[in-house]
Description:
This protein is α+β, with helices and mostly antiparallel strands. Helices cover 31% and strands 36% of the residues. It comes from Microbacterium insulae.
Amino acid sequence: xxxxxxxIPWREGDIEVLRRANSPELTRHLGGPEDDDALRARHAExxxxxxxxxxxxxxxxxxxxxYAGWWEQDHDGAPAFEVGCVVEPxxxxxxxxxxxxxxxxxxxxxxGGGRPIVGYGHVGNDAxxxxxxxxxxxxxxxxxxxxxPPTAVNVWVIRPG
Length: 161
């Protein structure tokens, strides 16, 4: 990935980024598309941000390529930051996800005070697993993500320090 990638703090108009990413293709490992009320609620949470949630629009050479960020999470009974990244289809396979997620991890580590950085990848999502490895996560096991039905996930962790 070239140096034209930027992470832009989440803004009011970025709900359109969520809407574009709310496709069956991009949500198949996340439980499927959300209804508009759920998207608006998530967007509002991203706008508030603060220390609990930091979300960014991914731009490459001034064009939106997706979004990435982190949020507070409990991991093994201790505070952690969970990270996530969604890259629009036109940008997939070009290193955008690795560059964006790598930068999000770097920023989360800087903000986290030593807390672990965690990623949960749907078991069988080969692209997610490759991305986690590329960014430096270590596979620590499997778990179950709540939902109906619950989803089997791989638990990827970076432990700073």
